[in-house]
Amino acid sequence: MNPPPPFLRCRGLTKTYQKGPNRVTPLQSLDLEVAPGEFLALMGPSGSGKTTLLHCIAGIDHPSSGELWVGDSNLAALDRAQLTRWRARYCGYVFQLYHLVPILSAFENVELPLLLTKGLRRTERRERVRAALARVGLADRAHHRPAELSGGQEQRVALARAIVTDPELLVADEPTGDLDREAARQVLDLLHELARDNGKTVIMVTHDPRAAAEADRCLHLEKGRLLEANIPAEVAR
Amino acid sequence: MRSLRNLAILAGKQALRHRTRSVLTALGVAVGLFLFSTIETLQAALREATEASEEDNTLVVYRENRFCPSTSRLPQSYLDGIRAIPGVADAIPVQIAVNHCGASLDVIAFRGVPGDDLRRYNPDLTVVSGSYEAWRERPDAALVGAHFAARRGLEPGDFFAAVGLRVFVAGIVTSPHPQDENVAYVHLPFLQESTTLGVGTVTQFNVRVDDPEELDAVAARIDGRFGDGSAPTVTRPEKAFFAQTARDMVEMIAFTRWLGLGAVVGVIGLLANALLLAARSRRRECALLQTIGFPRRAVALLVLGEGLYLGMAGGALGILGSFAFLAWRRFTFGNEGLTLAFQPDPSVALAGMGVAMVLALVASLWPALEAARGSLVRSLRDG
Ligand SMILES: Nc1ncnc2c1ncn2[C@@H]1O[C@H](COP(=O)(O)OP(=O)(O)OP(=O)(O)O)[C@@H](O)[C@H]1O
Ligand SMILES: [Mg+2]
């Protein structure tokens, strides 16, 4: 039986930043394949380029060279406007610091990605927002502003915002970094479910080996390259 | 279309929920538009009083080289001569008494006219309370212009004293001519007797011509007829007369236009500054919106929309404030016995709102660009 074709494929992905005379190369000729519906964890020391890689995969940043395919799209070849449209359809991004809009309620924050969706009626839109909030267990907090929510709740709102468009790819940058164990647990369970039950491809950066152990596979980013990581069984459970 | 509406709603939330900032900004805009609208009202009143139009058919015959009602003296006996001049439809002798001969914000002007002639000469006068007959019956009666009456709180049956006269209010009149609304019509003999002039002398003649095209020709004929006498005349169209005798006032009011312009520039600066600060403090938010699929155009539109709301809210507030202020104070700017009433004018309100919106758009242009520009990654990383 042949393995399914990868959903995400990088070949020789390189990202360099030029800062004055200094050249930083967080990603150096990186190869990566992720299967559809896979839940992948990325680990690595601070400054190793994890966020940079996620930005490229999510179409927020442009690789300096190399190939980057997600689904049928060659992200390296899209311009800024095309990337924006691509993100709107195919990718949900969960930031480490939630990035909720403070003046908007949880409901309105989750609604944001749908506001510009063509042909979506208001009733349908609200239905989808309610469903996403219910999915992350926050149906009863819809009308709270971010300042009125706990960190774990804020992160779940951010997750709801990322999944409300039903994207095929979900990218999360240290989604549990600022959360206590219980809150982290809930977020991880959700990500797990999304991959297992809904066939979403989930890529998560984490510093926490226990969180990484939830994933189907864990990779280590070091000096711009990826290494297979082995998580000791006792950590995993 | 639906997207645009959603953006408009989102921009509205931004404006409403950053409440303190929005209120302060709108108040700043309101101050500017208050000034602008007040000044435009002055300008509109001035235009109305001085700019000649096609239908103008009234001439004012004045004593040559005199500029104040108390010094312009003409024999009332000119009346028959004037009426006999070809092209003259009607003429009325007028004695004017004012409390101030210079420029003043609270001018009281009496026009003494023959009781038999007023209605015929000026059929546009409408008595809105009291009655014309009551005026005819009493020698000390006055028909008071509506604006004048409102300013002084006068009603039919009241007495009031000014310029050394004590008169009985017989009626309140309105008229399409702003001048009529700012004066009190009294009986000519009453006014002549009460002042030092005595019977037989008037300040001016108002003359209506048959054909507006003939205005200048008739004026020349009148001055030709009386030019050589001991009381030579100078005859001008009513509006030119106003523009001429009230030259100082006209220049002063024309100058305020610069203040209006200054207010407008100030509003642009204020709005642009507020929006720029907002756009900068929300850089991460703008990047986030783009990350979740907002095109740059949409982000720019959000800022424009917010600016437009602030401009419109401030504009409406300022214009309403200005109108309330003008209605409350009922300023009558006068000079040499001619008056300009500053009354709220819907066309000024409309122009004011238009100006507010254009200002808002101009002011938000740069902030909008700034919000939509720049690297997503950098904005997300350091906000
Ligand atoms: N805009 C930029 N200009 C220059 N250098 C940058 C820029 N963005 C990131 N870098 C550098 O790229 C490297 C990788 O950064 P990145 O944020 O991807 O690391 P990270 O693995 O996510 O680290 P952390 O675990 O601390 O979040 C760092 O050395 C960083 O300084
Ligand atoms: Mg990072």
List SSEs of chain A in N-to-C order: EEEHEEHEHHHEHEHEEH
Structural class of chain B: alpha+beta
Shape of chain A: globular
Uncertain segments of chain A: none
**What is the makeup of the main sheet of chain A?**
6 strands, mixed
Biggest pleated sheet of chain B:
10 strands, mixed
- Strand order, sheet with most strands of chain A: 6-7-8-3-9-10
Instruction: Say what oligomer this is.
Output: heterodimer
Return the string of H and E elements of chain B: HHEEHEEHEHEHEEHEHEEHEHHHHEEHH
The end-to-end span of chain B amounts to 31 Å
Radius of gyration of chain A: 18 Å
The share of residues in extended strands of chain A comes to: 25-35%
* Helix fraction of chain A by DSSP (H/I, runs of at least 4): 25-40%
Give the terminus-to-terminus CA distance of chain A: 31 Å
Description:
- The complex is a heterodimer of chains A (237) and B (383).
- Helix content of chain A is 33%, strand content 26%.
- Chain A contains 8 helices and 10 strands.
- Chain A has helices at 50-57, 80-90, 106-111, 122-135, 151-163, 181-198, 209-213, 233-236; strands spanning 8-19, 22-34, 39-43, 65-70, 73-74, 91-94, 169-173, 201-205, 217-222, 225-228.
- In chain A, helix 4 packs across helix 5 (151-163).
- The model of chain A has no long low-confidence stretch (mean pLDDT 90).
- Chain B has 383 residues and is an alpha+beta fold.
- In chain B, the strands form 3 sheets. In chain B, strands 1, 3, 4, 5, 6, 7, 8, 9, 11 and 12 form a 10-stranded mixed sheet that branches. A two-stranded antiparallel ribbon of chain B has the order 2-10. A two-stranded antiparallel ribbon of chain B has the order 13-14.
- In chain B, a hairpin with a 2-residue loop joins strand 13 and strand 14 (338-341).
- In chain B, helix 2 (19-50) crosses helix 14.
- The two termini of chain B are 31 Å apart.
- In chain B, 46% of the residues are buried.
- Classes of the chains: A alpha/beta (237), B alpha+beta (383).
- Chain A binds chain B through residues 51, 55, 58, 60-61, 80-81, 84-85, 87-89, 93, 95, 99, 101, 103-104, 108, 112-113, 115-116, 118, 120, 161, 165, and chain B through 2-3, 6-7, 10, 13-14, 17-18, 284-285, 288-296, 298, 376-377, 380-381.
- Magnesium ion is lined by residues 50-51, 173 of chain A.
